[in-house]
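for the recovery benchmark. tokens below, seq after
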């Protein structure tokens, strides 16, 4: 009887050990995760999602998140190809496609991708011109995505998208661009004004030809002008005098002066 009571603590102890081993062997992995298994230091595959068992003290599991990771690249200062100092920041979207490579091939795939994104951003900015960054940003984004994806592919990483968020220019360059935009607007305004004057002159020339063929039309224009003035309830009425009458009077006075001199 005493021997039976002595075995109870031992059984209790072994029961705790068995429960501990059982709970250590049960692993649960979420739908968006995979468990990378190492058995005695050797890669044994990736399991999940759901519940599965491993061998305690022999297998070691590392969870890898397969969701898209948003990586914010801080502002990088670089000199563009046309010698303009810029500060550019970007955002990188990537995900793990091969959990085994992401753990085996690189120590920290998030930090490694972050560092590559920074260096690639500076290199691409140095090979691009300012106008290309401002007007053709999609082309720069595609170039960044291609370069970063090629470098991270051996790690089982797929870069899905790279976006340049902001391009910060020096104050002197901003003032120069503002002056350039203002000059461009003035140029367009002058061209539009000149085009309007040219079209108006063409219309006036055609109207002069019509009036020359029908002299009575000038009288109709006089009457129409008087009608427009009268509708405004003005106390003063301006009656237009034909230029031909004034020129005739001027010639008459000039002839009188010449006769008096003679």
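predicted aa per position
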């Amino acid at each position: 009887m005493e021997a039976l009571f002595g075995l109870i603590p031992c059984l209790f102890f072994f029961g705790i050990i068995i429960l501990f081993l059982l709970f250590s062997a049960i692993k649960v992995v979420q739908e968006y995760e995979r468990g990378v298994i190492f058995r005695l230091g050797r890669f044994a595959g990736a399991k999940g999602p759901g519940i599965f068992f491993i061998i305690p003290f022999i297998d070691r599991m590392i969870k890898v998140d397969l969701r898209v990771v948003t990586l914010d690249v801080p502002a990088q200062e670089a000199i563009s190809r046309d010698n303009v100092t810029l500060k550019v920041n970007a955002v990188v979207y990537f995900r793990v496609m091969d959990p085994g490579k992401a753990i085996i091939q690189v120590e920290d795939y998030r930090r490694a991708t972050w560092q590559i994104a920074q260096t690639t951003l500076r290199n691409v900015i140095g090979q691009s011109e300012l106008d290309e960054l401002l007007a053709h940003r999609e082309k720069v984004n595609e170039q960044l995505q291609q370069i970063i994806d090629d470098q991270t592919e051996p790690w089982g990483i797929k870069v899905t998208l790279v976006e340049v968020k902001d391009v910060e220019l020096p104050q002197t360059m901003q003032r120069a661009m503002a002056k350039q935009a203002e000059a461009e607007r003035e140029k367009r305004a002058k061209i539009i004004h000149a085009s309007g004057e040219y079209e108006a002159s063409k219309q006036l020339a055609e109207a002069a030809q019509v009036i020359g063929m029908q002299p009575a039309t000038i009288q109709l224009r006089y009457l129409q002008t008087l009608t427009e003035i009268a509708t405004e309830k003005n106390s003063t009425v301006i009656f237009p005098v034909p230029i031909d009458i004034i020129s005739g009077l001027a010639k008459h006075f000039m002839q009188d002066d010449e006769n008096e001199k003679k």
